[in-house]
Design goal:
- The protein is elongated.
- The strands form five sheets. Strands 1, 2, 7, 8, 9 and 13 form a six-stranded antiparallel sheet that branches.
- By secondary structure, the protein is α+β, with helices and mostly antiparallel strands.
């Protein structure tokens, strides 16, 4: 069996069990009802008045104001109760509490009449149906109860007698006894009915249960649901300052504000950008810890990424909350990100009337409330009202095109820019160039960090000192090796034809070897051990190989030095000095990410205008 579906069925059963729970009954919170009154469906007037007074008081306490007089009260009635009998002055199994296995929802009128409640189906508490883990009086088996509900999910009628008939049928199917025949043996005493006030919360899981049922019938489970059902452990969060070539820093492309992210914010952005399909990222933090700034960075990155990938439209990100303040906080922050800065045309939105990167979607009735007026807002209608109503028409598009092109000419320093298409192409090129700069910067920082790590340099100063030392040592070693190689080659040139011809004779070969070893001996160096006893054959290749190694060492030092110098220049360009922790260069890059977001936003504005002109030209709404 598919483990995911089996677990989902288990979740569904647990939720259904919760809906079958018995309400908690505390001393003093219930009303005693005579069995005869329960069976007749009518309560004495005195008890009725007491119940209504309690319901009215609870309503006042809950809402903090005087409500109009109630005409009916929701009750839950326990048609019987159970209590363990005492033996020799002590309750059996040490307990004397009242158990209420069955419940009947009802409405009580001012005249004391009991009527079918909402939902109007009696039920037996799940904890009194086997199988269970607690030692409680059992009414019957859950399987029998489910079988009864399948055959008769609702009473036949709406009268009180219909409710009692349904209760009897339920008890008969589950326990084999009707209400009048109930017998729980010699260990339990049967108690009279009671009534409690009810908030009508039973059945609130109905829609969720229906969703479970539909989900189980699907051929393919949603990826997120399957992931949750399999209980897979989430991947560890990536390091906030990971510079690896395949790391998430390369996908962090956008930033709305100019302030650098904190390490925890950056780690969270990296976690989001590496999320597999169909997974969730939960972020927790008290007020003021930067959750809204984090959202800005995530949205900005998605906007830039969509533009670079050539998608036809930017992603739409939905922010929803049970707390309206959370939504307005996001909207305020998105509006702040669109405030124009003097002297910087990229900070302004190039479409007239746009003052934010967010759109508020309140209920239609609240669209014109005073507290919503500071937001760009919209509500569904025919057509939509609010911002779409203002923007999606020929008059606005014509005005917006002229204003957009004027701002684009200024920002791009191109007085000859004539069309939206040309502006979009220029912006896309700028975007790709900025993206390349970001990638090159991260690669430079990564390579320098690798060099420092390989050579045990913890700071910028240590790295520069090491590079200089390497340069000096490698330069001196190269000069010495070049001189040595020249001397070896000169010694080879003094070897006569006859010495070469007779070199197979050991005395002659040794005499020639001593001559070739002289440059090493004059430097107080040991003659290198070679595979061939004839140095004339092995020394030229050996000296050449050593010289190549020294030159490679020098080239490495030079490359590292150039890398550090280039990185220092890039940092200075962004207003920063040299860094000891090169991972922190990602903080400095947030300014470039802000520029990427601004370019992408202007790009999407041009794309929107182009599309609107097409739609309106085709007389489409």
């Amino acid at each position: 069996m598919d483990r995911s579906r089996a677990l989902i069925r288990y979740w569904r059963s647990c939720l259904a069990d919760v809906d079958l729970r018995s309400p908690e009954v505390r001393n003093g919170s219930f009303f005693r009802v005579k069995r005869s009154d329960f069976l007749q469906g009518s309560l004495p007037q005195r008890l009725t008045d007491e119940i209504f007074e309690a319901a009215q008081e609870r309503r006042r306490r809950k809402r903090g104001e005087r409500e109009e007089e109630l005409q009916r009260v929701s009750l839950l009635l326990a048609p019987f109760g159970l209590r363990r009998l005492f033996r020799h002055g002590a309750p059996v199994e040490g307990e004397s509490r009242r158990y209420n296995p069955a419940w009947v929802p009802a409405f009580l009128t001012r005249k004391g009449e009991l009527r079918k409640g909402e939902p109007g189906t009696p039920w037996i508490g799940r904890e009194f149906l086997e199988p269970v883990t607690r030692d409680l009086p059992m009414v019957g088996a859950l399987e029998d109860f489910d079988r009864f509900l399948t055959a008769a999910s609702q009473p036949a009628g709406t009268g009180w007698q219909d409710i009692l008939d349904y209760l009897d049928a339920m008890l008969q199917a589950t326990r084999g006894q009707t209400l009048g025949e109930l017998d729980f043996g010699e260990d339990f005493e049967l108690l009279s009915p009671i009534a409690i006030l009810w908030n009508e919360d039973r059945g609130i899981s109905k829609e969720i249960l229906e969703l479970y049922d539909k989900t189980i019938k699907r051929e393919e489970l949603a990826p997120l649901l399957r992931l949750l059902a399999t209980g897979a452990s989430p991947a560890p969060a990536p390091a906030p300052y990971d510079l690896s070539g395949t790391g998430p820093a390369l996908r962090h492309l956008g930033q709305m504000g100019h302030h650098a992210l904190s390490p925890s914010q950056r780690q969270t952005v990296h976690s989001f950008l590496t999320l597999p399909e169909g997974t969730l990222l939960a972020v927790n933090g008290p007020p003021g810890t930067g959750k809204t700034t984090l959202l800005q960075s995530v949205v900005a990155s998605l906007w830039v990424e969509a533009a670079l990938s050539g998608k036809p439209s930017p992603p739409v990100i939905l922010a929803c909350s049970t707390n309206n303040q959370a939504i307005t906080n996001i909207l305020d922050s998105f509006a702040n990100a669109a405030i124009p800065q003097a002297g910087d045309p990229w900070t302004d939105r190039w479409l007239p009337g746009l003052t934010s990167y967010g759109l508020y979607l309140p209920a239609f009735a609240k669209l014109n409330d005073p507290e919503t007026q500071r937001f760009q807002r919209a509500a569904p209608g025919s057509p939509w009202v609010g911002l779409p109503e203002i923007m999606e028409n020929p008059s606005y598009v014509g005005k917006a095109e002229a204003e957009y092109l004027a701002k684009a000419r200024h920002a791009l320093a191109d007085p000859g820019l004539e069309s939206l298409e040309a502006a979009a192409q220029r912006l896309y090129r700028l975007l790709t160039e900025a993206r390349c700069r970001l990638a090159e910067w991260i690669e430079d920082a990564r390579q320098s960090a690798d060099f420092r790590r390989q050579h045990g340099c913890a700071t910028f100063a240590e790295a520069i000192a090491h590079i200089q030392r390497e340069r000096n040592e490698a330069t001196a070693a190269r000069a010495d090796q070049e001189s040595l190689q020249a001397e070896v080659l000169a010694a080879l040139q003094t070897v006569t034809f006859w010495e070469d011809l007779l070199s197979f004779l050991p005395p002659i070969r040794d005499r020639r070897n001593r001559r070739l070893a002289l440059p090493f001996l004059l430097r107080n160096q040991q003659v290198p051990a070679t595979a061939s006893p004839d140095l004339a054959k092995s020394l030229p290749e050996l000296t050449r190989s050593n010289l190549e190694k020294i030159r490679a060492r020098l080239e490495t030092a030079e490359a590292w030095g150039a890398q550090e110098e280039r990185l220092v220049a890039r940092l200075a360009e962004m207003g920063s000095g040299p860094l000891d922790d090169l991972g922190k260069s990602l903080d400095v890059l947030d300014r470039l990410r802000q520029k990427l977001f601004q370019i992408a936003s202007r790009y999407w504005e041009a794309r929107w205008l182009i599309e609107m002109k097409t739609l309106l030209g085709a007389e489409r709404n």
